Amino acid sequence: MPEIFINGQAVQAGDDQTVMQVARANGIFIPYFCWHPNLSVPGNCRICVVEVEGEGGGSGWLDIACNMPVNKGMRVHTDSPKVLERRKATMQFVTLNHPVDCGICDKAGECTLQDYHYQYNGEPSISRDAKVHATKHYALSERIVLDNERCILCTRCVRFTKEISKTHSLGVIDRGDHSLIRPTEDGAFAKDPYSDNVTDICPVGALLPTQFLHKARVWYLKPTPQVCPGCARGCSIDVWHRKSEWKLKALDAKQNARIDRVTPRDNPEVNGPWVCNKARDLAQHFERARALQPMLKGRPVELAAALEQARQMIASAKSAVALVSNWASNEELAAFAAHLAPRFACRVKTDCQPEPGEVVEDDILIRADKNPNTAGARARFQALPDDARRAFPDDCDLVLVWGEGFNFGQLPPKARIVYLNSWLQPENGHADVFVPISVQTERSGHYTNFQGVVSAFQACFAKPAGVVDAESVFTALALKTAKVTA
Ligand code: SF4
Ligand code: SF4
Ligand code: FES
Question: Which has the least CB within 10 A, 7, 129, 307, 311?
């Protein structure tokens, strides 16, 4: 392993590493726009320039760290006066035609151009020429809007569609200061199921998701670590929602407890820094109308009455079957296994199927199983057979249905039904006992993905009034005197 020196500090480098990689591995910061750890190296922005000492400490030379292979004994300076002078000139060049949009730009607060301007330049433009104007609001697709004036032509977005999503759906047209990012004419970008990742990797506010456009300043929001439940990959994500100290007053309270946006959380074991677009649309899944009222055959009752009725039905059942949710967390499954499973023949059902038009499976991230914890559930219980009716013995007199997605027409006609579900659905009123349960964004837990990787998620929001965690329902049903409050 060659030893090199960065800012006088001796560091070990891999044979085929670049100065940028070695610096990052050793906690030494070098700025970058076009470089990205998961993409190829175009070396076009020049902001990562560093100085390499000449032989015997002689006059050094400047070059880009992202494309500079390490050489045994080389001495690199990341912030020498020569470097800072060149970096300032580079920032002047990069911002030559960039509009001063920060006050209205959604990227403000997360924009590397803004940060580097203050860190390495901080001066007004030295140009006396008018800025070149370009397309300000170009719809790349229904999901993403492009502001060509803000684009610094780093080509990260182009390389993403070439190297990661492999749709080859973005390119650069024209030349010099008239260069523009444009989608290919076959509409491939609009169909790219990973397209929204370009909005994360764009270092400036040129690519913005329409679903978050002008919705909130990012410093009013906070991320909570979550797991995407959209398929069995279980990508690590951050769910962004309003900080309590920036709570909106005198407006719809839901605005303070809604998913404002979803971004990937880098997890090399599962999804790297990417997610598919389904994760970005999780708000649509979680903001469906909720079931909030415990019921006995459609008649509203207190939670305690519903639980007591369920407890009696379970205690007196002769042949009971439980259909276990594959959206249940490992903790909920453990609680069910400990408290109730011995009284039931348990089968894991499939809560969610692919939606019409959705990409069912690919060789990037997307899995055909559209549920987050099939592996965790099946590690404990058998799968429901394809013909669900085979799971019910002739004398079956009780079925506990946990979660959505089961066709009630397949239930044995004489069996009584205990139903735990989160959504407002007609089946709720047909159950003998209905208990509304919390959703993933209201509780913490773990899922096991199809590879066996266990990932944690944390609660983002409080449960609505009337709703209870499935885990506490199971505990209460097992204990004669237990009390559960919503
Ligand atoms: S749109 Fe953004 S990611 Fe694409 S080239 Fe321009 S600055 Fe880079
Ligand atoms: S690949 Fe699956 S888990 Fe990952 S973001 Fe897409 S739907 Fe969610
Ligand atoms: S980050 Fe090295 S040239 Fe752009």
Answer: 129
